[in-house]
Predict the 3D structure of the following.
Amino acid sequence: MKKQGYVNMEGQIVKIISNSYSVKINDEIYECKARGKFRNDKITPVVGDKCIIDCKNSYIIDILPRKNFLERPLIANIDMAVIVTSVKKPDLSLNLLDKLISIITINKITPVICFTKLDLLEKKELKNLKNIINYYNSIGIKVFTNKKVKKLCKELKNNIVVFTGQTGAGKSTLLNKISPILNLKTGEISESLGRGKHTTRHVELFEIKKMYIADTPGFSALDISKYTKEEIKNSFIEFKHNNCKFNDCSHINEKNCDIKNKVDSGKILKSRYENYLNFIK
């Protein structure tokens, strides 16, 4: 670690292993410890945190305010979240996809979808997936496949990005396509469980192609119950423009609900509305 004089400097945490924090300042990496006061103040430094470090003693002395924060994966100050979603082995879960979209949107992060394993689909399944892709694009959520890596990178440029999604969806494989130098470990799918093995052991930000990207441990379950019904409703962006009779319409039991009419007419994807009801409950 280089010390540019004994001064306090602002940087960003890019990796945490045990009690060692790697903080990037300009083009230098500083290996630091965290002050004991954070434990007393119940503050846990996480990857993505902007911080002030004491260069003389190699300590993080302050964590700056966060613009957002995710618990799973544990990371802060994210601009975009790529939801890597397998369509086969493991099978496509629109419930999990919509849950991730809601959680990401509530946390003021821009969601991006990347579908993987399209080559495993039958013709009828592929046609159905194209309809799903067209719908998410129509409501303003950018959708890519793992065959369009260059287009995905162009979308992510100049942003801090987290890759997340179900275990076994191919997050590490996708990141290796973006930059082979990462050489991230990939896991086989457990045939008996129908899901992947955890291969990523810690959260880390990598600076690649004018963006910071993070590979994170996979997961398959998220708790959305911590959010209010209003937050969940607002996370369904296609619900915002409606002609419902009541301004505070919850789109559940009210009469003359424009959203329910749009579901019945096919203008709103039925699975989206069903997942909304499921999350509200």
The first strand starts at residue 8 and ends at 17. The chain has eight helices and 15 strands. Confidence is low (pLDDT under 50) at residues 187-200. The helical segments are 37-40, 94-106, 123-138, 149-156, 171-178, 229-235, 258-264, 270-280.
